[in-house]
Predict the structure.
Amino acid sequence: MKNIKYIKITLALLLIITLSSCDEFLSEVPDNRTQIDTPDKISELLVNAYPEASYMDFAETMSDNVADAGLNNSNIKNEQSYYWEMHDQTNVDSEGNYWDACYKAIAHANQALESIKKLGNPAGLNPQKGEALLARAYAHFMLVTFWSNRYNPATAAKDLGVPYVTEPETELLKSYKRNSVQEVFDFIQKDLEEGLKYVTNDYKEPKFHFNKEAANAFASRFYLVKGDWDKVLEVSASLGSKPDGKLKDYVTLSSLAPDVQFIEYGKSSYTANLLIASPNTLIGRSASGSNYYLTDAKQTELFGPQTSFYNKAWLFDFYSYNSSSTLFTPKFEEYFKYTNLTANIGIPYAGVVLLSNDEFYLNRIEALVMKNRIAEANTELEYFLGTRTSGYNAATDKLTEANVVAKYPVITNEFTPYYALTPLQTSYVKAIAEARRRDFVHEGLRWLDVKRFNIVVSRNDPGNPVKTLVKDDKRRALQIPLSASNYGIEKNPR
């Protein structure tokens, strides 16, 4: 009994001590890291306002850039993406992982904007405000691009978009509802245009932040999807008709050894690279670990000399880890961070280019076509293709309307964006889409064009039934991850 009594007294004394010190304890800030109250802290926070995961592998695999290589290596995510099935894994390079990473990036951007607001929106923090708005717009744009129907103003007000989050997370399990596609696009445009007013190039490493050029390149992608050709031309005016020195130098790249090309492609020192990220991804290993990839037949179909307007080889180099069953062009250098050297385990990262002058310029050329400025578009497309052609001679290698129409004739119901195309526009848009397809092979941008132009993708592989992604197929909008639908986010129809 004495022991019990002693324990009771001790607990009573502890309670008295606790109560007497309660006010003093609560008057102290428990953790400085939760107080984002200085410009430096806000800038540090914005480092995490970019998705720390990659969409490139699953987006590329869903497109018509890949085929069945007939290998025995098993990769369930690779197969599920190839047949437009929902991933049942949420690990690295999965759909669910990218969804979560986008919303984590948005949460950081929102906290930065809230902290700037609490500091009175000082003009000195306008660069951080601009970056946060652009980062928030970018992450939402990528989300609505993958998890919603393609943008169509005739249906956008009814189509399910994604939750557009504009406030910091303050609840453990907050309930969110999906905005319509139109609402999401309106929010993106508002954030984008306000961010463009404030963004600067004043960074120690500008290529890892939304700088002015990256912001304009993202704007050109957004306005291209919206069909606002004038805006695309407005934001791309700084490129000029012939952006000498601003596009990737494939003559130099192709002269390098493959192990050097891996590093060079995503370097921040390249003028062409506008926004670079280092997400947790295994994309650098996809060429050796994926059955559904760029095969030898696909490589010939896309990059053979017969695909060139000038009947010359392309300046894209391809290599293989498996006797040409799958081929790759060096783009992704993996950086492995060891978390346990003894166990030889860690986290893989890769440098990836999210926005570039190469895409920016092609967006501009497409806008010129849609404005019926065909002569200008022809001149600029000729220049662009020349920078990717082996032995190109500007004096003799000429692009004409006749050979564009001949190489890319109109095929009924092939390219069907929500807006009308004349026969000549169709041929040029197809030529530009094919140029984009080659330039960004492995990077997933082809899927954006497959979706935007409603291109049919067929899987006619030996030993498998014919599977086709038809026009307006519901699978073009990825299914909402279980991590979101389990908490009330409405699923996409199937």
Remarks:
- The longest helix spans residues 2-26.
- Strands lie at 67-68, 273-277, 292-293, 334-340, 345-350, 352-356, 457-459, 467-469.
- The chain has 19 helices and eight strands.
- The two ends are 69 Å apart (CA to CA).
